[in-house]
Design goal:
By secondary structure, the chain is of the alpha/beta class. The protein is 26% helix and 31% strand. The radius of gyration is 17 Å and the shape is globular.
């Protein structure tokens, strides 16, 4: 069964973007951009919603750093509002329920998948238990006054098992986890009994 990875970039306080700040908060460095250019998951199909598609394809048109790599990747956009043909190359439009579509892609497909942005899509896929890996690149900014797109609002409780980490340019931190959706806070009675 192919892997599904949620892939986010975030400020330290959990925002996906901030008003008035440039893309990647203006902190993308040569090591991070080289890693993006190496296409760490270049064989993965990229999943996104309509809003992310509109944003990213627009940024690609403007030549935003890192978006050139996405043009050559296979992409699936889940939307009931977009219409074909889509202007961004290598993009397929799916208008049915994304959870069911991704579940089917995992059952019969062979190509691993990852998301980009698409907060609602990611939340739905994680809640449905379809996510195998959760990757976050944390940028060293707090955008409490200007931040927008709070990433984790509306998420279920999730425990995260560390799979790996890496630092880029001495300031950006990549962390990867295996997520497990919880039905509530973990049972602490065992920890209390041992005290």
């Amino acid at each position: 069964m192919p892997e599904l990875m949620i892939d986010f970039i975030t400020s330290l306080d959990g925002y996906g973007a901030a008003e008035g700040w440039p893309g990647l908060w203006g902190l993308e460095g040569p090591e991070y951009l080289a890693w993006l250019g190496d296409q760490p998951e270049g064989s993965y199909t990229v999943l996104m919603g309509a809003n992310t598609y509109r944003l990213m394809s627009g940024l690609a048109t403007e030549g935003e750093p890192g978006t050139d790599v996405l043009a050559g990747l296979s992409k699936v956009v889940f939307s009931t509002t977009l219409k074909e043909p889509l202007s961004w190359p290598n993009t397929q439009l799916v208008s049915r329920d994304p959870v069911e579509a991704v579940r089917k892609m995992k059952e019969v497909g062979t190509v691993p998948m990852r998301t980009i942005g698409s907060l609602t899509l990611c939340r739905s896929l994680l809640t449905a238990g379809l996510v195998d890996r959760f990757r976050v690149v944390v940028f060293p900014v707090i955008t409490g006054s200007t931040g927008r797109d709070r990433i984790y609002d509306g998420y279920p409780d999730v425990s995260l098992e560390m799979l790996g980490s890496r630092t880029f340019d001495g300031r950006l931190q990549l962390v990867e986890y295996k997520p497990t959706v919880l039905t509530g806070p973990p049972d602490t009675s065992r920890a209390d009994a041992s005290m």
